[in-house]
Amino acid sequence: MTADRASDGLAVRCEELVHIYRTGDLDVVAVRGVDLVVEPGEKVALLGPSGSGKSTLLGMLGGLIPPSAGQVWVGDEEIGGMPERALLRMRAQRVGLVLQGAARNLLPYATPVDNVRFAHRSLPKFRRREVMQPLELLDALGLGAVADTPVPRLSGGEQQRVALAVAVANGPGLVLADEPTSQLDHPARDAVLDLIDVVNERFGTTIIVVTHDPEVGERLGRTVTMRYGRVGQEGRSGEQFAVVGKDGSVHLPDDILEDWLPGTRVVVERDGVDLRLRRSES
Amino acid sequence: MEALRLSLRGLRWRAGSSLAVLVVAVIAMAGAALGPLYARSASESLVRDGLATSPPVTTAVQSRGNIAGQTDFKPDQLADAVLQRARDPRLDPWYGAPTLALVVLQGTPRIGDRVLGQAQVGWHEGQCGGVTVTSGRCPASAGEAMVSHRTSRDNDVPVGTTMQLGITSDPFADRVTVVGVYDAATADPRVWGLDRPSQFQPAGGNGDGPDTLDEIVVDRGTMSRSNGDVAAVSVRFLDASVVHLADVEPLKDTVTAVTVTPDPTEPGPRTLSISGLPDYLDSLQPQLDSVASASFAVTAQLVLLSWFVLFLVISATSEERSGEIALAKLRGMTPGATLAFGLAEPVLLLLLALPIGFLVAYVADRFLTSFYLVEGTTVSVSAAVVVALLVCLLGGAAAAGLAARGILTAPVLEQLRRTGGRRARLVRSSAIDAGAVALAAAGVYELKKGGSDALALIAPGLIALAAGLLAVRVLPWLARIEVARTRRAPQVASFLASRNIARRPSGLRIVVLLSLAVGLAVFAVDGWVVSASNRAELARAEVGGVTVLHVRAPSPGALLSAVSSVDPTGTDAMAAVESDNGSGGLLAVDASRIGSLAAWDPTWVGSTRTLIGSVLHPPQQSSPLVVHGRLSLKATWTPQGQGGSPVTLGVAVRAASGLGTEVAMGVLQRGAATYTVSLPSCVDEPCTFTAFTFTHPIAVPSEKSVGTVVLGDAVDAAGPVDLSSVGQSGWRSGASSLASPILAGGTITSLAGGRLTLAIEVTHFDDAAIEVADHPLLLPVFQGTNHGDVGSSAGTAAVDDVVEGLDGRFTPVQLVSSGILPQLLRSGTVADLQLTVLAMGTAPNPLDYQVWLSGDAPASTTAALKAAGLDILSTQSVDVRTAELDRSGTALALRLFLLAALVALVLGAGTLLANSYVVIRRRAYELAALRALGAPRSVLVRAARREQVVLALAGLLLGAASGLGAAAVALPPLIDATGSGGPPLWYGPAWLPVVAVLVVVLVLLVVVSDIGARRTVRRALPELLRQVQE
């Protein structure tokens, strides 16, 4: 995103992505073999219960958490083995991040304009002139009215939108947002989602959002549901798909799991190119 | 500019913690600057005080020349040459205008054939305005003179008298008419220079030789035409008020250059300049070194403390800002930009603290200077101040850098979650711990062996630092034990407190700080109290009485009488006489009063206030026997056998002035005869009868004379003298009070009817004598420890020593004990004044007559003493002497330590408070979680308070132990160096003040801990947790 034209969205590709962390004497696999492709300019919601690994996946996409195995491609670059300086450069110019809790994304003693300027500090000086200036950006995103209001005086929804504005301040091709609508009422949530749409449509930015809220997923168009560190389900345009894992595993939809309890034996039958599942009678 | 504005907003956003950090940084900077600032002021004060209180003879520059050896020149030519030398312009910045005098030191004034004595005759420029003329007028032309009131009165020289001065061989030039009488006490030193016209001294010895009269003042014309040994003298007085520390070296160099011995081949009269100033300034150097050393030690330790404090608060500030700094990394800022953003606020505070800290130090130094240092002492900034401030600033920046290092390397998400456990472990550097312990050990070793290098000087701080660092290692272990103990117990607060201490080593840094601060404070307070006590004791010993008046008195007897008349009860005033007898001096005191009113402590000689009177003046067998004008008596001499050589009967008496006289009454005639002797010194006032002596002629070998003598029918000018009035025990064999004491002698066989019957034996080697037992045969005395321990004969009648008495003659004494004497300290002898006069007599040697006043003496006592005829020459007091000692180099140095203690304590408490402000947000999240889990607020407050108090208490105890340990090692050499020669030294510890300081600090820390705990828990609202949910 520059002052005169929208930026190009960045594609994202994960191949057998794994992250293991250690807590006490235990190794915990937070993300286990995730394969995921996000097209440039796409809006994707990462859904899943707490502990399913979606925030960890987001952290790996933003270069904040190093993968234990597998590859992460952002645009044309594989960032899994990138040195810290290159990751900083990436976050400065190509990837914008919105972490959970709007206040944590903003300097609390500054105004939205100051926060955008603060984000500009990570750009080389010549680039600062090329990107949209703080007021221009905030106006463009419908935040001009609160541009000079100190952050603590903004409502939760306004803070969240300002956080999003700061994330796109340097014209990134990818925006990663962790729970941008949590703790917001519906109007505020919708305002944030509207802003996501604006950013996506106006700048062509690829947007990946972590959320618990299925309605948010529906608004974004594509949903990727994670369970136990894996991509278990995808949805596009309201239609849900189970995703076959590398090891052949398939996550069944929740409504089926209500009937088929864990341990239920299933017969898998081929029907041409399709498969049919049937509960075993024996 | 944008960045600066943002940083300022950040500082304002965190106003509480920013202010706390600023205050601590200001105190740290002020502490660092105050050491060298005060040291410089103290050094200047030392110099100014020394110069102001030194006698002019030490500091003045005296130029002089004598006619002797260069008689080609006239006195006026000599005067011009001397004045030219004295007017050396190099001296002008510090010295006043030169005086000029022409004097002949030993004139022999006489009126007709009557020689008045010997006297200095002189002319002094400006003399007529420099002395009060009590009658007549000032000499205005050649041939006129002026004499002192005393000379006029005692030597019968009224105005109008014509006299010969005896300064030249020319009778015409020598003859003057007395035109005026002056008051010698009013002579202005600016006119008289180093001389005083009051020069009277009676004839010495046994009255041989002339008296020395006060100066005879003449007109310049009289001196100009003298062909005697005229000396031209010019004096320039130092104006101590214009001398500052920076002047010391130039002043010394200038005076040294001016006083170089001139080339004898130079034309014109030979003159030279002399001054004791360079040597005096050199003698000040050890004291200046002492202040400089202390300054270094204090500054180094305060800077060390400041570094630590800055590290502590800046680390805490940086950790508090970890969320914001993580945001910078989240936005992809380069490490440099992140570092700049992270350090901007603390560095801004440091830069702001620098001038404020300096200003605070400057004002504090001005305050201290005006209160404790000599008036006129300046406060100026030396290079050391700038260095200390810069070192402090760099230390703060380094601390910020160290803190930033952790911030830059920490993972962003961890920083955002405000979990800093792993970073804190960076603080615990084994290398630093080991280094500090090794340095402390080396410092202690240096101190033990008496070293005074930098390491030894900062040893107290190093010891406290090492103790604190070791505690940081040990405390978590102890806390873990407590955690295990309290885990299943109902003591939730204890569990939480110990858990926090065990898992959060960064919090333990406060222990190091407190240990250092309290250690310095304890060391300084202990050192100050101990040294102040030693100085006070030294002052008590040096002065003797609470106040001591040095007076002019005719004789010891007159002094005793005057003091008794003013204070008959003996509670306020005491007479004392000191003689500089060349072997440490003899101080004769009124033993009956010294116990009750001396500031000096009799226990220093092993006695008590109650006993000392009777020890020095035991009850005597007799009261004095007096005799008037002449003595006539009948002696019946019955020799055994041939009778041996002729025996001369002598009588010894002592005049009221104390002057002893021994006169022969005649050679004893076999059978009865009357002997008569005139006693002129007993005409005006009766004399004390001392002894009868029986001697052989000295010149020829003699044969032993043995026989019986009956003495009786004694008559003096007032009538019959009853020799039996003192009783038989009132007489004893021997006579110790004679010029040549006779310790054996006649045996008193009977005393009845006014007749004294004696058996005597006189040989060529041993005379015989009997004396009135109005004083001990051997005078009981205390002697200084330099005389050695108590003699083997203590308590017996054997002679321990011979002491030169007030009259310059040696007398056997009995040593009661040795110790620290009043005024004389470790040398000399102390005896009872009355017995000293009876036993040893006095002579018109220059004696220092004193009146000691008690602390309760009414203000009117001084006036009463003057009214009783005692001229007060000068006054000494324990308070003044203590104040002088308090301005000595070591005292000023220790005051510097005291100052450091104050700064250290303020820093410690301030940092503890600042720390609680700074960490409050970080801790609030944890406590908020505990509150969300249902922990009662009161329990959390208790837990937080307990944690803080445990840390504070640990720091306090460690600091106290290390401070006392450092004092035990470091103080003795310091105290030995300054207090030796005085009373027994006390090395401490001064428990009461130290405990008082610790209690105050403890209360302060508990209050601060409580405030911090309450504030933290108050902010720990469960709502905070929403920000940290994942």
How would you describe this protein?
The complex is a heterodimer of chains A (282) and B (1030). In chain A, 29% of the residues lie in helices and 29% in strands. Chain A has nine helices and 13 strands. In chain A, the strands form three sheets. Chain A has a seven-stranded mixed sheet with strand order 6-7-8-3-9-10-11, with helices on both faces. In chain A, helix 3 (112-120) packs parallel to helix 6. Chain B has 30 helices and 33 strands. In chain B, the strands form five sheets. In chain B, strands 1, 2, 5, 6, 7, 8, 9, 10, 11 and 12 form a ten-stranded mixed sheet that branches. The longest helix of chain B is centred in the first third of the chain and has 44 residues, at 277-320.
What is the string of SSEs of chain A from the N terminus onward?
EEEHEEHEHHHHEHEHEEEHEE
Task: Quote the average pLDDT of chain B.
Answer: 82
Number of strands of chain B: 33
Q: Helix count of chain B?
A: 30
Alpha-carbon Rg of chain B, integer: 40 Å
The helix fraction of chain B, in percent, is 40-55%
**Residue-averaged pLDDT of chain A:** 86
> What percentage of amino acids of chain B are in beta strands?
15-25%
